[in-house]
């Protein structure tokens, strides 16, 4: 009676209500988008989640003090979650770039900082909300948000001209691309199906199954092939596991046979993908994109070098550059040259946090699925409920072997784990009431006081400052004048380490474009302002190279900044450009881009023979890569005009799809279009 009254009192407290409200808001994060941010589709959600987790933590430290019943209980899966987080943070500390690992890049939402906040999310959710009814309600919120995301997807497909650019770009609704959306829909389909199998009221049950059907329809209309295949396999697995839970021996036997067939198909497919040859192998490779195999091979080389604790979070890009395969960029190897993930979650975890991290992740999954199975055997979950949850985890793991996670999908994954924890705890004898550490208020009183002082500080440094840095970056891009750019340029390239290398690089490219596009008269009139921006760009890129020496983009951008500076204002900068690009060649000997940048520089200073030498080295590394072939055409136009036509014909024979690009380059003039052509040695986008 007393415990019930205390629980009722806790649920009526303002702290509990705020925490619950923030938790519900977290489930709305897939819908969050603020166009004033750079990489808005990703980082609108990132800052939203970070901010809410900080507020939840503030509420939690005081709830711990005032209400002992909300103090954590642990289950095998919760211990595995926290253990995995500890391993990731340990790998971060001993990795090649701990600062970058902690803050992360601007393109993704994963980092040591985000892992800490996701840990807060899981800890608070599983400690404060301990009834299965609470979690069913959270599932409902998540499913309804999924339905809204699906509605937005169909609107963007049916009315692309009237949709915001971030929706119409890659068919991913509010998630960014179809692959991210596919993973998210898998979770929402699983949650909706679980609710359909759990609700006792017919209206709710029919509503849940209706949502599941609509979400399935959305998934089938996307181009997320990995998620679609995982869905069909997961659906068949639901049926197989349900049969195993039946009492009739024939049904059990059929269920086991189906499980064996599904497992055998999975193993067979991956065996032919990784080790096969001939037409069967080619079919599998084409289905997943040939680039994936190269990225996995690069990851494996990185794993062999640092097998136990890996390279640190977010540091696949370091491994990628160290073991760069010059085939990347060619038609046979997918046509892309920049990657920060291996596009295989297990390999990404292994690269970033080593064998300890991989074992921790697999243990977390294994314990979660084992607990679901045991809950089913104990009749705490029905045969259908347990089959749905087990198949959801299996489908998620299978599709993650060729895709990348997002913050929305990681929240959904933790939501599923949290539900399993709460369901497990609810059927275990509670020892929390008699625990001395639970009854001791001195510890939690001190914790609440420290939290009250520290959390506003962490909120400023972990949320407000990165948000401002991102906001100012977009402000620079959208500024109407050079003077307006300079007002926020320094803040954009100095505020917060989160994503700063990419922000500096992107703004440097903007600076180069600005300086090279103004007229000679305007360049002279605005000399002081433009040189100040060039100086700020130089300082930012220098700092990035100092802090993250494996970040290739910074070298290339700094070389182009110096070359642009030399062409416009100060010829002595040519020497600085050569020095930084030679450093890039020494650090990244298998990547052709630094060689091509040096070819551009040599042409600019009137050394065509040296340009041809650098070009030959770049071309030798990647002779069939489109970027290299097109750059060689540009190089020959300047250094050996007699040979350019013959080589251009060879390129068209090798790769007929780029004939229009070859023709366009041949028609350009080396005098009137000189600056434009030299610029194309640096950036593939310009080709």
Give structural attributes:
32 helices, single chain, 3 domains, mainly alpha, 687 residues
Describe this structure in words.
This protein is mainly alpha-helical and 687 residues long. The protein folds into 3 domains: 2-443, no CATH class; 479-589; 592-687, no CATH class. It contains 32 helices and no strands. It has helices at residues 2-11, 14-27, 40-66, 76-94, 98-103, 112-128, 132-158, 165-168, 178-198, 202-221, 225-244, 249-275, 278-288, 291-305, 316-322, 345-377, 383-399, 407-426, 436-439, 441-478, 482-494, 500-517, 520-525, 527-547, 552-568, 573-587, 593-604, 608-621, 626-639, 641-654, 659-667, 674-679. The longest helix is centred in the C-terminal third of the chain and has 38 residues, at 441-478. The protein is globular. It starts with a helix and ends in an 8-residue tail after the last helix.
Structure at a glance:
The chain is mainly alpha-helical. The chain is built from 32 helices and no strands.
SSE blueprint:
Blueprint: H1 2-11, H2 14-27, H3 40-66, H4 76-94, H5 98-103, H6 112-128, H7 132-158, H8 165-168, H9 178-198, H10 202-221, H11 225-244, H12 249-275, H13 278-288, H14 291-305, H15 316-322, H16 345-377, H17 383-399, H18 407-426, H19 436-439, H20 441-478, H21 482-494, H22 500-517, H23 520-525, H24 527-547, H25 552-568, H26 573-587, H27 593-604, H28 608-621, H29 626-639, H30 641-654, H31 659-667, H32 674-679
